[in-house]
Amino acid sequence: MKVEKFLLLVSDSTHYVMKLEKLLQNSQICCRIIPLPREVSAGCGLSIRAELSDKEIIEKILKDNEIEVTKYLIEKEGLKKLSLIHISEPTRRSYIS
Length: 97
Fold this sequence. Notes:
Elements: E1 3-10, H1 14-26, E2 31-35, E3 46-51, H2 55-64, E4 70-77, E5 80-88
Antiparallel strand pairs: 1-3, 1-4, 2-3, 4-5
């Protein structure tokens, strides 16, 4: 089986996750809201799955809009997760208007 790699964006607020998904989709980034993996702890239980190839564009969108989220790299094969790599932790809460 092929190993699948993707970016996981995590926030403490369901509202922020939904707003961020809309912002990314409006910027032509293919993403979707998924349940938060049990290995990750956050208040809302939701996260955004995005293609790893879009990481640089996503970083620019987050920076330009002053949005900070926790980011993870997920590697999985089929239904089995091989690894969850913590990429960054937000330093402050940012509000999406």
